[in-house]
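Ticket 4471: requesting a sanity check on a complex prediction with zinc ion. Repro inputs:
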Amino acid sequence: MAFPSFPNPFRTEGLWLKGNLHIHTTNSDGALNPYQMAFLYRANGYNFIAITDHDKLTDVEGLAERFNDFLVLPGEEIGTGRSEVGTKYHLVAINLREEISPEGGPQGVIEEVLKQGGEVIVAHPYWSSLTVNDLLGLDGYLGLEIFNSTCLLSIGKGYSTVHWDDLMVRGRFTFGFAVDDAHWHFNPHRPVDTCYSWIMVKASEFTVESVMDGLKRGLFYSSNGPSILDVDVSDDSVYVRSSPARAITFVANSSIGERFTASDHPITEATYRVRGKETYLRIEVEDWRGRTAWTNPIIFQRDS
Ligand SMILES: [Zn+2]
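Returned structure tokens:
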């Protein structure tokens, strides 16, 4: 018997809030100042952002007060340690009170962020050449960036979903985040990296605390295009309804899972029959432009 466990945002009361948790400003290598970034995201229908300059905690207090209908979380992207191949870990810390030094190494940084009441997301594993061993070697992070807009648009390394599955088949369940890593960098062959992807969080109130609570509980999904409209989980099936899609994929352990592909008309729903050997299952919805939405994993516990 399988006992699915899923923090289902579609079965939780509250407000849907759209946000981006990874943004650089003129306080590091971004081209816009914090006010311009907040203005841009708010004008494009986002409800909240986190400003995460490199190794610097940008002060957002005055900024948040300039908008009464937009939330700005304080954050920092910390480059620290050495991966198996010698690259740095980039850790996105959100909801910080004090600037974090990279000196503690990746695990020390995570512990310091948690002590402050913040959370850590491991940035762009594909871009950073992180291995599954690198990711298994750290504890206490909330999730991975499974999609990073600027990593896709600059060098084609935007998707880290294989890293995510590699962790989860080994029993390390974690949340997946789509982020922009916005710098307002672009050129004639590179589209601008702002307002390209997002997360949709179910929050009980329109406050930073409620957004953080929704993130910690996994009450969100990620997207760079499609909308997920409903997810229903029972002991023997998982149902999803979405905006028009050319494929809906249920991704699970190794060779389990199933993909539903549209023929001539888009599909807007699919149902997966639980086989019984899944330890996790997650859903991807892909639209006709090749853009994707991702749910967090449903975890299966078994009584045998
Ligand atoms: Zn960044």
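Notes from triage: The helical segments are 34-43, 61-66, 105-115, 132-136, 149-155, 161-169, 208-217. Leaving this open until the requester confirms.
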